[in-house]
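Bump. Still looking for Ribosomal RNA small subunit methyltransferase A structure tokens.
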Amino acid sequence: MEKLGTPSNTLEILRKYGFHFQKKYGQNFLVDPDKLEAIVDAADVGEEDCVLEIGPGIGTLTQYLAERAGSVIAVEIDKALIPILGDTLADHPNVTVINEDILKVDIARLSREKNEGRPFKVVANLPYYITTPIIMKLFESHAPIDLITIMVQTEVAERMQEGPGSKEYGALSLAVQYYSKPEIVAHVPAECFIPAPKVGSSVIRLTRYETPPVKVRDEAFLFRLIRASFNQRRKTLTNGLGNAEGLDVTKAEAAEALRELGISENVRGEALSLEQFARLADVLLEKKKPVGTKALE
Ligand code: SAM
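Sorry for the wait, here they are.
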């Protein structure tokens, strides 16, 4: 089988199987061999690695990964693509295709069953309609993953790297930077895909930290706090947190905590660094503890 990553070979496969693109699945297939090589290079894939690929499509990137990796597990939601993958990946017995929604897959279990519990390298040209839920799942499920190399919208890639004060800075930037070191490694113009997306794309590599760069008592509370802080972006943090559902913080507690940290009560979430959010989470939690337990520590 000839490699797929060119417009003519991709169109031939699409014709052969009478494949119709499903908009709802964010299907834009890569047709540029140089960009495919660049992704696999950035993903640092070698024979000792088991790669988890999200959304193999017709198997274009999968072919490149299978040539370098020990094994590849490719999770594809669209069942119309499964027979096509059987054909395009026939020469690669080290690939396992799973017809599932990645958001429903238990990745830790998959790693136990297919990779002796060792970490995966995740590589994907992601479906853009669920980029953030997928990234959050990869991090928050605490599945063993040490490197994530993904194609996303350029705007989203930039958001992951932003710091305080920028308009693009938000909950996604903080989550990504808590768990990993983000690095944009390539820009990919729309004409490298069939069909061409309406937005520019970039490849970003997220190198997972062994220990996060800030210490916090309760990670889940930190992320509830961060989400609440950016849910009502235009409000001051004091007002936003005081109203936030599921956080159980009063306006007075929020104001007092900010005062204790030497931060203005009129500050907005977008001005706070990851370190400041971590300290704020700890101070707020301290206030929530029943009085008797404070002395026990
Ligand atoms: N990897 C191929 C390539 O680079 O040419 C296709 C990438 S395309 C942008 C995204 C792929 O993800 C599609 O094949 C789509 O069907 C699949 N997909 C969409 N939602 C998914 C989900 N929830 N779980 C698994 N795969 C999904």
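The pocket of S-adenosylmethionine is lined by residues 25-30, 54-57, 60-61, 75-78, 101-103, 125, 127, 130 (CB under 6 Å).

Edit: fixed formatting.
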